[in-house]
Amino acid sequence: LGIAANPVLFNENGDAPGRYEIYQYQIRNQTAEYKIIGQWTDQLNLNVRSMQWPGGVRQIPSSICSLPCQLGERKKVVKGIPCCWHCERCDGYQYQADTFTCKMCRFDLRPNVNHTGCVPIPIVKLEWSSPWAVIPVLIAVLGIMATVFVVVTFVRYNDTPIVKASGRELSYVLLTGIFLCYATTFLMISTPDVGICSLRRIFLGLGMSISYAALLTKTNRIYRIFEQGSMSISAPKLISPASQLVITFSLASVQLLGVCIWFGVDPSKAIIDYEDQRTSNPTMARGVLKCDISDLSLICLLGYSMLLMVTCTVYAIKTRGVPETFNEAKPIGFTMYTTCIIWLAFIPIFFGTSRSTEKMYIQTTTLTISVSLSASVSLGLLYMPKVYVVLFHPEQNVPKRTRSLKAVVTAATMSNKFNPKAGLRPNGEAKTELCESLETQNYPTKQTYISYSNHAI
């Protein structure tokens, strides 16, 4: 026993146990005093009810050093105080790997709601029911119906003067290109796979290449006929229907050759692009299923068609001085001018949205609508007037007197000579009768190719 008659005790470490009284500084009735609120004798004993807290709060305040971290939060230990920490949220594409560490999810994953793990990023593609797809599909369907209607009409009235005068061979080739332009819309919206991606490479530029190759061949023929006619009455070379078809398919085959080389260098495949719609908010992140055609590859794919279009436009400008009565080049000129405007509007829209999260939808819709509008311009300006005359004014669909090559060329040259304003008239067009007379000399058949330059079309 000790002096105070208390037993002397020692713990396992040989230390005497402490005995303490715990005081709290309190203010009661504006009087400050220390009040005993507990004791320590081997363990803590507190009288919680006798304790006071700032603001008169009765509830025991929580210790900031002992708060457990929530799900998705890591402990950031306070320097010098290992028993205290701050809770730090695993934000962005991070997840809680352990108590003290946040790690980034894999490129094709995103964190779950609690940031305690990673889940796959949803895959999206352009759906047929999407508003971005409905409008292009509607335009394409109407265009295909109109194209089929024109083809049926031309086949039904294949031997009538207007159909003959329009150059039946090139007309059917051009209609094939227009049909392919409309059909491209369905390939661009279909679910990407190896087959669809291969067909996109082939047909995206082929339809326009065939169309512009046919128009370039026709405008070049008109230009050469009048250039030759101003100097000689002999027929230019390569103006027969067979020659025109060979030239057209030769020009279009360059597009196919380029695509074949592309297939050899880089076979087509479908990919999932996780960067295209990787937003700062992980919940909005999407993987985009698409073909491996970059913006640069697309420009190269359409570049040859653009070259044909520009060349055809140049020849349309060159033939603007053709006498007004020789009016076949006029609708071709209008077609090319309008087409150039469409594609000039396409370029800033397509590349201006390259950083948008809606890039896939905007670019696909812009491209398909531009291709369809180009085909619609050609169909509307070159064929609908002829169909209108064939169906509703058959009295104008009659043969006219065929003049000799010498007479036609003389009329053309004299018209330019005695009418100085003729060369200033916009979008003049070479009279079909002139072309037909030249073809008749090369191919003396019983068929009579006539001019429809005076028809109201």
Automatic annotation (TrEMBL):
Classification via InterPro entries: GPCR_3, GPCR_3_9-Cys_dom, GPCR_3_9-Cys_sf, GPCR_3_C, GPCR_3_CS, GPCR_3_mGluR4, GPCR_3_mtglu_rcpt, mGluR
Pfam families in the record: 7tm_3 (PF00003), NCD3G (PF07562)
Keywords: Cell membrane, G-protein coupled receptor, Glycoprotein, Membrane, Receptor, Transducer, Transmembrane, Transmembrane helix
GO terms for MF: G protein-coupled receptor activity
TM regions (residue ranges): 132-158, 170-189, 201-217, 296-317, 329-351, 371-391
Residue span, G-protein coupled receptors family 3 profile domain: 132-406
Subcellular location(s) per record: Cell membrane
Coiled coil location: none
Cellular component terms per the entry's GO annotation: plasma membrane
Record-linked SUPFAM superfamilies: Periplasmic binding protein-like I
Gene3D superfamilies, per database record: 3.40.50.2300, GPCR, family 3, nine cysteines domain
Topology of this chain in the membrane: Multi-pass membrane protein
Family matches, as PROSITE patterns: G_PROTEIN_RECEP_F3_2, G_PROTEIN_RECEP_F3_3, G_PROTEIN_RECEP_F3_4
Family to which the UniProt record says this protein belongs: Belongs to the G-protein coupled receptor 3 family.
Protein name listed in UniProt: Metabotropic glutamate receptor 4-like
Species this chain originates from: Notothenia coriiceps
Gene for this chain: LOC104955002
